Amino acid sequence: MDFQLGQPEPQQWQQRQQQGCHTKLADVDWSRYHLQVLFIDRHDQLRARLAAGLFEKVAEWNGYGRALYPWTCGTHVDDSAAGRTAHMWLSTSLVSQAAVLGIEPKVFTRRPESFELRDLDCYDVIVAVDSATREAVLEQVEPQGQQYYRERVNLLSDYAQQQPLTDAEVQRTGGLALLPRRMSQQLQQDLPQLRRVVDVCRPSLTDGSPRGVAAWNHTVLAVMLGCAGLVRYLIDAYPPDLPEYDPL
Predict the structure, then answer these.
(1) Is residue 138 part of a domain?
(2) How many domains in the chain?
(3) How confident is the model at residue 14 (pLDDT cuts 50, 70, 90)?
(4) What stretches of the chain show up as alpha helix (H) in DSSP?
(5) How many helices (H) and strands (E) does the chain have?
(6) Which residues, 6+ apart, have CB-to-CB distance to 210 below 8 Å?
């Protein structure tokens, strides 16, 4: 994955800086000894699926594969015949990419699901891949519930910041490493720029030019960093005094 990242999103980054680098992350409740994490994008085809696959991989690497369960949905899923055909084509295209990333093909081949308002209460952690998706989710919430649910829905990039994920944790290798060695090496190449990503963009799978390949790699690394930080945050939130069950 040797490539040059594109320019960061200056307007969104400046807004994030003005709000403070340390966005408030949603509280989590480990009382059921596991957490269900919902990743949301627009069509439930690519970015959310990629996040679910990489999140699952990092969780398993850390011994939490049976305690952290990802799922996906989309805010604008096309359930027409044409939409289903398009999803079949896209998922077929993604199978080879999934193999390269060590993600199970089933992560991409499952039929897309539409976001429902009740999902905000059914899942422990809600993660949107970009600001537009987050706003599309919150538009369905009644005015009296806006403040509560705005604190429940984070961007994936919120977890890619120095808190909860330090540079040292990204770079660490060996038995106590948060990430497999290859992931760690990939992220170190452009870590400062990856931290500046606010919205994870959807790349084109039909663009085989160097620019298109770079866009795909950029998306993969941005999602990878966000998932690493999310796993780190959820592990750190596990209460040390929770009785009777050890997820490891």
Answers:
(1) yes
(2) 1
(3) low
(4) 10-19, 47-61, 81-101, 106-109, 119-122, 131-138, 146-150, 167-171, 181-188, 191-195, 210-236
(5) 11, 4
(6) 3
Look at residue 18 and tell me whether its pLDDT is greater than 50.
no
DSSP state of 114: B
Q: 212: domain CATH number?
A: 3.40.50.2300
How big is the chain, counted in residues? 248
pTM of structure: 0.89
Does a structural domain hold residue 243? no
Which residue range is the domain that position 74 belongs to? 28-236
In angstroms, rounded to a whole number, what is the distance separating the alpha carbons of residues 203 and 89?
A: 15
What is the sign, positive or negative, of the torsion defined by CA atoms of 15, 17, 20, 23? Answer: positive
Burial class (CB in 10 A: 0-12, 13-18, 19+), 185: middle
